[in-house]
Write a structure and sequence with these properties.
324 residues, binds S-adenosylmethionine, 18% strand, alpha/beta, TIM Barrel
């Protein structure tokens, strides 16, 4: 098991399968653009599967594919199928912006993908184009319906809430859960290098909750995954969650590791990578030595992330390059 100095067992791996994205979301992509990895730096399908297999043998039980935009990765269905077949893996999930879901959702499901999160920050078409840097809301909404029809139920919808941008849609998103089997997850806006962070745009969990409960009663539910605070409006089909990395950090229970598209292992979203696995993957290093490299990286994991003020000052990679 991958247990760190603070007794945290690591069971959840997030893999960025590409550093390319077809959107330029204001809170994610630096306005100045991002230097792309050289194609040869990207892990191959075989390399990703090797690391995943090793990590599953060390205790990882859930893998989430992210990016960049994971549906842009050529051969994503084949990667999904190989990961889904790993003995010991209990959940294989993906986070996508949904633009390419129409026509792909059923194939992903058939390949073995078990759960899907779609990022959707607004229900208004013009606003979508402004936030995402690209029009496309109808495609995403169509993709959501295809994903539901393909069996991704409940479907999770990730909403990054920003004051002056989309915070006035909290009630609209709650209303969306009335007759859709979705879990709308309101995420606190986080600072990353170059993401035009403004403290004034930050909307905390208590503020969001208060705005919603002024209109809808929220009944608390258990959340098996642990990091979300989950609620339901009585009589509604879907549910509503809050993800609170800043107002109530979950570092003490963090069970996550992250693998970037170019093979860096990160033990904290807000901390520079702990280990570069790519050289070992390419120089014939055996699994046992690779596992040691991973264990040492987990052993160096810090008890928690830095204060928000330090995060604003900068980290080493944008969210686009880490994958959330
Ligand atoms: N392209 C995919 C997508 O859009 O879902 C996967 C990658 S994206 C980086 C993963 C998640 O990170 C998305 O749900 C996005 O909303 C979230 N995210 C990105 N930047 C964020 C920020 N500054 N604060 C909070 N969440 C953020």
């Amino acid at each position: 098991m991958l247990v760190d100095r603070f007794g945290r067992a690591h069971t959840y791996l997030r893999i960025a399968v590409t550093d390319r994205c077809n959107l330029r979301c204001v809170y994610c992509t630096p306005a100045t653009g991002v230097a792309r990895c050289a194609p040869e730096a990207l892990l191959t399908v075989a390399e990703i599967v090797r690391v995943a297999r090793l990590l599953v043998s060390l205790g990882i039980r859930k893998i989430r594919l992210t990016g960049g935009e994971p549906t842009l990765r050529p051969g994503i269905d084949r990667l999904v199928a190989q990961l889904a077949a790993l003995p010991g893996l209990e959940t294989l999930a993906m986070t996508t912006n949904g633009v390419l879901l129409p026509g792909q959702a059923a194939a992903l499901r058939a390949s073995g993908l078990m759960a899907l999160n779609v990022s959707l920050d607004t229900l208004r078409e013009e606003r979508y184009a402004r936030i995402a840097g690209h029009p496309g809301l109808p495609r995403v909404l169509a993709g959501i319906q295809e994903a539901l029809a393909a069996g991704f139920v409940p479907l999770k919808l990730n909403v990054v809430v920003m004051g002056g941008i989309n915070a006035d849609e909290l009630l609209d998103f709650v209303a969306f859960t009335a007759d859709q089997p979705v879990n709308v997850r309101f995420i606190e806006y986080m600072p990353f290098p170059g993401n035009q962070w403004q403290a004034a745009r930050f909307v905390s969990y208590p503020t969001m909750k208060q705005a919603i409960t002024s209109r809808y009663p929220l009944v608390p539910l258990d959340d098996a995954a642990g990091v979300a605070k989950r609620f339901q409006v009585p009589g509604f089909q879907g549910t509503v969650s809050f993800i609170t990395p800043l107002s109530a950090a979950f570092c003490a229970h963090c069970n996550r590791l992250r693998l970037t598209a170019d093979g860096l292992l990160k033990t904290c979203l807000f901390h520079p990578a702990e280990a570069d696995l790519r050289p070992a993957l390419r120089d014939g290093t055996p699994d046992a030595a690779l596992a040691d490299q991973i264990r040492r990286a987990v052993g160096r994991k810090l008890p928690g992330h830095r204060p928000v003020a330090d995060l604003v000052a900068g980290g080493d990679r944008s969210m686009l390059q880490i994958g959330g």
